[in-house]
Write a structure and sequence with these properties.
mainly alpha; 0% strand
Length: 148
């Protein structure tokens, strides 16, 4: 569905229930307290001034800050399905991450990881070759059904 990436965090296969609501409330209030953490833990340590520790296995790396993090990506349906489809690359990555103990895996983080891996691994020549291949595929006929 077009623009499905514009949904809020609740629409992103996040854990339902109270934890999601607590995370959302913390995001809206500017707090960065980990989900499930309570103030008694900080009191027991005896340091109220200390910021809560970030837990990379339980918390997303960055919030949904649409003005700073949202960008449009246009591609062919087959490409999108291979990347973000029901059995695509990002689905397989999410399964692997969850098996490794990571919780609250967010689409925004997976998309960032994909682009980061591509930027660190691919060369400009690789991108140019893929561009030319798509143009060559187009020479055989339209790549999109223009009725849609």
């Amino acid at each position: 569905m077009p623009f499905e990436d514009l949904t809020d965090d609740e629409g992103e296969r996040a854990d339902p229930g109270d934890e999601a609501l607590e995370e959302l409330a913390g995001t809206l209030s500017g707090e960065s307290e980990p989900v499930g953490a309570d103030s008694s833990t900080a009191d027991a340590a005896g340091t109220d001034d200390e910021a809560p520790r970030y837990d990379p296995e339980r918390e997303p790396a960055f919030p949904t800050a649409k003005a700073q993090t949202q960008h449009s990506v246009y591609c062919l349906p087959e490409t999108w399905a291979a990347v973000d489809g029901a059995s695509g690359l990002l689905f397989e990555a999410e399964v692997s991450l969850r098996r490794d103990g990571y919780e609250a895996v967010q689409k925004r983080e997976l998309h960032n990881a994909l682009l980061r891996a591509a930027a660190e691994t691919l060369t400009a020549e690789d991108v140019a070759e893929a561009f030319v291949a798509t143009r060559t595929d187009r020479a055989d006929g339209p790549l999109l059904d223009e009725e849609s």
